[in-house]
Amino acid sequence: MNKAPPAIFSRNRCAAKWGRARARYKCDNSSSFLLDDLTGDVIERVGFMQLQPQRALVVGDWSDSVATALSDLGADIAVGQLGHFNEELPAPAGSRFDLIVHLMGLGMVNDLPGALIHARATLAEGGVFIAAFPGAGSLSSLRNIALAADGERPAPRIHPMIDSASSSALLQRAGFGRQVVDSHTLSVRYRSLGQLVSDLRDHGLTASLEKPSPALGRQWLSRAQEAFDTLRDEDGKVTENFEMMTLTAWK
């Protein structure tokens, strides 16, 4: 009997943060540069590959940019919302798509091997699966800040992220006939720690671990601010990097 995968992420906490990201997207002062980068990359990829899907499933694009672009190509679109769409369950019987696009959230699925197997099973023969999300090279500055603020008792403040090698191996394990994993880095300059945290909330990248970390007290926040200040460059800003990964696989 196969053992259930470890519950690293809380589905309830994930649903809450994705819902908050969708709500914040509608606000005038929200940021969406990570989502914009991923949607633009996917749309460009679809054009370069000259895909003409008849049926497509789009998960995680609360801007609706990808769904609109695919609809303009004549595709019949099904939409899944992060936090409601369950990647770890088989699709309903008879569900078949020529293209599946999953944005932002695939790195926060407990049973990622199972999710990829289900995605492949849902594709029509010759169908394409594209997933794009922040990868393991992201948030190096914030990790250092959190470690400094935790002091001698480090806590899991930032969830584990997937790297390129693991992604490629998982796609192969799921049975895809061919796969390509690539990434690029977005470097963002921050004048305040608060703005960095706000941007993470806008993108649904805040904590969602099954076992919550200890609460952040005033002393922790003070140490975090001190650590942020030590990372400032000559212009007073701190650089944070986001590794934007894209997985492309063919059935």
Automatic annotation (TrEMBL):
InterPro entries, sorted: Malonyl-ACP_OMT, SAM-dependent_MTases_sf
One GO BP: methylation
KW Isomerase (keyword) present: no
One family name in Pfam for this protein: Methyltransf_23
GO molecular function: methyltransferase activity
Source domain of life: Bacteria
Key words, A-Z: Methyltransferase, Transferase
PANTHER family per record: ARGININE-HYDROXYLASE NDUFAF5, MITOCHONDRIAL
Full protein name: Methyltransferase domain-containing protein
Protein's organism: Pontixanthobacter aquaemixtae
Lineage: Bacteria, Pseudomonadati, Pseudomonadota, Alphaproteobacteria, Sphingomonadales
